[in-house]
Fold each of these.
Amino acid sequence: MRALLRPLTCICVFTAVLISAAYGRTQSASTPAGQPANTSTLSPQWEELTGPDFIQAIHQSQGVCLLPFGILEKHGTHLPIGTDLIDVRHASLQAAKQEYAVVFPPYYFGQIAEARHEPGTVSYSAKVQMELLQATTNEMARNGCKKIVIVNGHGGNESFLPYFAQSQLDSPKDYVVYVYGLHHQAADAPPLKDKVDEHAGETETSMMMVSRPDLVHMDRVGQESGADKDRLHLPSGLYTGIWWYAKFPDHYAGFAQYANAKLGEMDMNAWVDGIVEAIRAVKADQTSLQLQNEFFQKSTHPVDTRQ
């Protein structure tokens, strides 16, 4: 969503073969058992690394790890429930190939209360969202990820994630959390024909044509209306949680018939470029943790802080 802006030994072996085939991975037979792979062959995906490879990956990434953050929610009748998760992982993995970083496994435990009435939506309480994300970043840091970049792929997280990042100042930590926000339209992209384009519209559908074109069902576009119902009339600046449902009760906001792969490629490339730039900036950042440590030290004795 832009605006609210996946005998037992035999079974395990067979499953591993299927996963390997699905991702098109090949393993080198030349690497001795227990030895890390060559740096040029290291996968950026946390779950694909061996123990020795993981250690090497943390060193190669300079402790920079990406946490692509998606969601599970309806995306009209033509896009998959995991659209945000699929897109943000695609962009993050492409970026990590250009500027190496370790990419955390699929994560979708965010804010999506406004879609609880739609099939397939998985909505966790605010308490679980905060506690699980904190436990996750703590565990990432314990494993050497001292610079964690949460890459947001879901509009409903745009308030939640900065708040989470701010909450890191509640107690001392030996790592820094950064948040990279939602993608923006490519600077050289043509003007959108979709004047709503809030959710599963022209932009999101175009991008899914790049990340997983096999999951786009253009023949189903138009089965539901993506027009703004405009059923709530409150003054500007006054907020209530039911606002999205008041506008888009079918959880589809836009006109996907205008989608095209060329637009999707331009926007996806721009998103990847932005993530690459963020990774490089975070690798070069030696100030955030220093200032964070200074802050924590001062916060234990605020009356001693020079005024």
Amino acid sequence: MQNTTGYPQCRIVPMRMLSPDTTKRLLEKVVTVPGIRRILLNGQNLPLTIPYGPARGAKNPHSMRKTIKVADSDIDLHVQVGTITLEIEDRSVTEKIRAICNEFFVDFSCYVQEGRFMKSEPSLVDYAKYGPRADKAMIGLVDPKRKERPSVIRFSKDQVCGWEI
């Protein structure tokens, strides 16, 4: 049920950066929770080529830049995941996410925050890049400077989840 301020959001904040394998295992559990509208992965950028310094332009063979498979979709990780932001249907989903995190993170801790973490209305930059008919599901998930489109995960026939990686 949507109210005037938009859908509620929560953020999973682990105390460590997540490896691709850990990210995959956590996301496989998270996408099973009904009521998730959108997911945004944030973290340190892992560029394909070295952007500055004496090796500028050389390939950057980083071990954390991998492709993971979640809900029958392949996701190229462009970041080392530090936080996972979720837009949800209602606040009861937050407790389910918190229960998954408490069960999943046993070697180190994490916490689940509630608040507003991603845009819900198009900005001037969104309008300039995507025009007046921009996909509302992608608002707040796309870095305007990035040339690649974000990956879209379909984890059921009637539910689509956008990812900015």
Amino acid sequence: MTRSKYFKRKHIRAIFVLWMKEWLFNTTVAIVLAVTIILTWRVFNPPIPFTAQADAVAALRMPHQAMSNLYALSQWHDVPFYQVLAIYAVANDFFPQGASPPEVELDILKKEYVTGFNKLRRQYASKDIEPYFELFRNLVSELEYFPVPGDYEYMFSDTWGKLKGTAILDRENIRGRIPVLSMTEGHILQAGWHPHSGYHVVVITSSGNRIMYAHLDKLEEGVATGRQVAAGQGLGAMGSSGEALLERPVHLHIAISPQVPFAEDFWINPYPLLRHVEEKMYIFPFMVHTKAIEEPLYTHHRLPLNN
């Protein structure tokens, strides 16, 4: 190797080492600056602590129009429905009784809870709101079927407070006329007779959610404790067995007990969830969806299913 080549290579190495030192210095400064900015922002913008009242979570006073619009927006913008549902509930403190009615308009819901989802979620400490996200994730993913076939006439309303559940009534009031379907897949935790709930079935899902179907007229053959059940599988027929014999009319009592970390023996109002599943099964499939406009345009037949 000639002397000139040696010094040339040494010069190149020196330049490379100098460049690397400068790059490492600039990168370190950038990282320190970024961490400082984040920590400073955290100091002056701490996460909002959040704890909902268990009674408010259980009552689930979420307006149906809001739930319906959030579902449509989640489909349109391809975001998980349970996420926008959870942040809407959290941001409204789970709709405590006596509070001002929450927003239900499509444009406001889109801006605040769908396109603004990440910004809104960052306002809360993850450890505080994660249990509520998990609650909605499990409920939305597991409740697949409405418990009554759509070609039967029935009615139901929000009876939370009077009942720890929802009663779906047979309009014709005939025992054994309307089949009862499992809303979820899972296995049967209980099936049989009880003096209060009459013929009943309790299905437990993979997440630990329990769904009770009570006051049946009869159980389907093969429905027994320990058996696996598929979503949409027949469990029995609507009746008025047990203490319901004293009250009439023929109905199905639905009760839902999610597995949650913030309460024991927790039951949640099934009514908003039933309305959502009913709409998803019997209304949304008939909707006309056009992408020629900014937001979805839906039309549907109003089915004589629910008051």
